[in-house]
Write a structure and sequence with these properties.
The protein has 177 residues and is mainly alpha-helical. It has one domain: Rossmann fold. The protein contains 7 helices and 5 strands. The strands form 2 sheets. Strands 1-2-3 form a 3-stranded antiparallel β-sheet. It has a two-stranded parallel sheet with strand order 4-5. The longest helix has 20 residues. The radius of gyration is 19 Å and the shape is globular. InterPro entries: AB_hydrolase_fold. This is (diamondback moth) hypothetical protein.
């Protein structure tokens, strides 16, 4: 679909509602086609799935612009952490990570299929060379932590948010003047 000169992909409200009410609203993992599809991209974690939030996640599904998809494709094809300039047809222009001036803590999910640990480790090496990397570590001890769990896990407060607040407090104390 084209709107205001931008190409994007979207699902109409009626189609989205039909999907949510039909195949995306099951209460058992083997019946929820949408959740199985999503987990194919982000990593499986049925134990931390909040069945009350799953329909809300699908209802909040937002369109993606072709520019976004091209940007992700450019990063995947070139292996360069790059800005989006000129689409796939132009050479990648890497982000200048020397411009990062604040301490950085990188967290990853052991089961994250969308942002793999090796990609986070590569970014960590680049940030370490600039002197801003504080640490790179799993987001929590849960071995099935996937990309969506950082926001939607049933136990996100206990697993991620409280330890993250502790880490932020430690950094604050370390750099407090």
């Amino acid at each position: 679909m084209k709107s205001e000169g931008t190409y994007y992909f979207t699902i109409t409200g009626e189609v989205r509602e039909a999907m949510i009410n039909g195949i995306c609203n099951a209460r058992r993992s083997e019946q929820d086609v949408c959740l199985r599809f999503i987990y194919g991209f982000v990593g499986e974690d049925y134990e931390q799935n909040d069945w009350d939030i799953s329909p809300l996640m699908m209802a909040r599904f937002q369109p993606a612009s072709w520019g976004q998809l091209e940007h992700f494709g450019k990063v995947a094809l070139t292996g360069v952490f790059t800005s989006f300039d000129g689409g796939l047809s132009t050479p990648p222009k890497p982000y200048d990570l020397k411009n990062v001036k604040v301490p950085v803590l990188l967290l990853y999910g052991e089961n994250d299929q969308l942002t793999h640990k090796s990609q986070v480790a590569r970014l960590a090496r680049e940030l370490n060379s600039t002197g801003v990397l504080e640490d790179m570590k799993p987001g929590c001890l849960w071995p099935k932590l996937n990309h969506l769990d950082f926001t939607f896990a049933r136990d996100v407060g206990k697993m991620i948010n409280k330890p993250l607040l502790h880490s932020i407090q430690q950094l604050y104390n370390k750099y407090d003047p």
